Every structure is written in structure tokens, then in C-alpha cells.
Amino acid sequence: MNQEDLCFLPATEMAAQIRLKKLSPVEIVQAVLQRVAALEPQVNAFATLTAEQALDAARTAEAALMAGDPLGPLHGVPVTIKDLVVTRGIPTERGSFICKGQVPDTDAPVVTRLKQAGAIVLGKTTTSEFGWKGVSQSPLTGITHNPWKHGFNAGASSAGAGAAAAAGYGPLHQGSDGAGSIRMPAHFCGVFGLKPTYGRVPYYPTPNNDYTSHIGPMTRSVADSALMLRAMAGPHPWDHTSCEAWPLDYPARLHEGMKGKRVAFSPDLGHARVDPEVARLVREAVAAIAELPGSAVEEVTPEWGKDGPELIRFTWPAHMSGHARHFAEYEDRMDPGLVACIKEGQRASAADYQAVRERKLAYCAAIGRWFEDFDFLLTPSVSVAAFPADRLQPEDWPQHAWDWVSWAEFSYPFNFTGMPAANVPCGFTEAGLPVGLQIVGRRFDDLSVLQASAAFEAARPWAQHRPALG
Q1: What pTM was computed for the model?
Q2: CATH class of the 3-459 domain in this structure
């Protein structure tokens, strides 16, 4: 196996080969670090690379392997952590000069669990400032480039994770998603991304944004995400919103299929603009799902769809407005779009917020009632393919000081509801840019979303595609 193939090797196969002593954790980590060193100036997916710590951990993992010690399910497998998640002894800077140099003294539960499963942390991946936007740029780290086209958007606040997955920086990448930040970079970068049910993976510190942020896996295969989710999921006392249930055996049940499932497809949720090339590729993917055994698809226009835009355009700035406390010292070093978003949020009163939140809760209930008739909803993941990362909106879309949501109307509804939703790669534009299909499931039914994604992956494989880098 050559070095590039080793870096793109799925975690499921990598972990199995390590257990059989056919692959060395040190060999794997060295290969990935060599690839990172060669490509990082071109991609810029890492906020902090912890190469020496990773090599030390790999040597320890190899010694445990040779000694016959008990091994976790991810033993010796490299993983990256998003730079919004706290990591003991490693800077957590959140894409902002406000947090530059901050080094936490504890690991978030998700980091602890990945390490306990045997995974080896390579470092922290880039994020937009405080995760506020759907574009892969921050004042602190600059542009994270889409591996499929330099200078183009790798998407949203988990952009570093998405770019790292696409570039072959190992198989496992932790993302988080408050309005699409797992699914959008997965769409732009051509990888699989799962936003699990809210609370399935504990989040610490719990974000102050009305229970919309989810932690989940970003990988090149569905099986790798199933493996990673099982390691991360489960209740934790540090997150009072975490789900009570421990995870199912997702990897073992991936291939149960979609027989008897009721599937809906909405091309626009009744209101969203979608670029024609994206719309065509998504329709082709939906047609492929309709051909799967036991699967029938009904095209719908959900009545609740039209109510989403007003809700997100109030709540997103409102939840960002707390960062106004940094203006006196940092305003001139903050993302100008974030500053505009914060100032928009400052206009809202507490009474305004309560009134909109009441409408939002009714919106969530309406979506929940609608899902009584369907197991899945299929939509585009994002309205556009990647565009230049120095822009907040594509050139041919309406321009606005902070509103990037105009091209990302499909993701936030399921942050509001806490439902599981995945991006599955479904093709490439004529310019060679990836496009994704979103699969949304009922709350708590992460397994079915993984199964549907695996069924589509088997029918329309994507992991063999690699960007031309180096």
C-alpha cells in the first residue's frame, strides 16, 4: 500500500489491520503527518497541528498492541478535533483573536471518549470566527481552501474538518453543527457528514444558542461515521441536555436497508432558491433512492417550510449578540460580517426574543407532526456548489452584510428540531465541484439515517473520488 492509499484508508479497515498487526499506528500517523506537511500550505485545514504529541500517542498505541493489551475500537486511528471544542493542553482559539493563545485545562467529553476508544489526535481543525458563518475563513487563520478548487469555500464552521477529510488527512474528523456546519462543508468538500440527534453526543461547554448545536462525525464513508458516532455518543453529566440512551451498534446494523420506509423529497422546501446544476444532481440522486429495494419517494412541499427564513434571521443574530462584549477591545480585529450580525442581534429586546421563540417552538412541533407520515425527508444539502471563499455569498446571489443563510436554507430547520440529518455526496458539477443530498430522519432515529445513507452509498459509491492535490 502506498502512502497516499494509507492516508485515504477507511477507519474500519485501518482499525482491523492494526488489530491483526498488519499496520502500525506509528506508520499510519507518520504517513498522515507527511501528507499534511506536504499539502497544508495549499489547504490550510489545521489551526493547530500537534505532530509530536500524535507521534508519542502512536508509539504508546503500538506498544500496547505488541503487549497484547485490551484495544479500543479506534485503536491507533488518527482523528482531528474542531477548534470550537476544548482540548487539554492544546490551544482552543475558535478562529478569533479574542481567544488567541487560550489553552484549556480539560478535554471535552467527546475528546476524552475518542481517546479512550484508542484514537490518536492529530490537532485542531479550522473554523470560522465562533462558528458564525458558512464560509471557510476566519480573521485568525485566513482561508481554508476547498481541496477540489483552491481559493473556494470549504464551507461553514467545520470547514477544516471537511477539507481534512477530503484531502486524506486520515479517516476521522469531528465536526459540530449549529445551522449546517457539518452538512455544508461535507457538501462542499464531497464527504459524508452526520449531524446526529441533538444531545446524542455530549457538548461541553453547552453552547448558549437554544439547543441547536450538535457534535458529529465527518468521514469519507458511512461505515466510518457509524464507528466514530458509536465511540462519541452517550449521556454525560457535564451536558445536562445529552440524551439518556447509550448508542446502538450502528456499524453492525448499517446494511439493514430501507424496506418499508416512507420517503419524501422536497426540492426547495417551498421557498428556497437552488442553482439549476445542484437541483439536477439532487434529483438524479433522489431517483436512485427511489430505485432501491422497498423504497418509494413522494415529492412534497411541506407547509412549515416557508416559516423558517424569518425565524433563522432573527435567532441567528440574537444568539451571536453576546459577543458584543468584546467590541471595545477587538471589534477592528473581528470578522466584519460577524460584527454586522452582532449589531443586528442587539436590536432585539427580550420580549422580541420570547415572541419569536414561541413561534419557533410551534414550527418545531409542526415539523414533528409532519414526520408522523414520513421516515425520511430528502432535500439538497446546500443551494450552491463551492464559490470563492473571500465572499459571503456567491457573486450572482443577493449581497448582504451578514446573511449567508440565503444559500443555506435546508439545514437550520433540523437544528431547531434536533433531528438527525446527513449529507451524502451525490455528484459533481461540470466544474468538478461536489454536491450533496441531505437525508433527514425522525428525532432519535440516527440508525435509520445511517442505514439510508449506506444504502445510497452502495448504489452510488463516492469514496473513490479524490481531489488532485500536491
Answers
A1: 0.98
A2: alpha beta
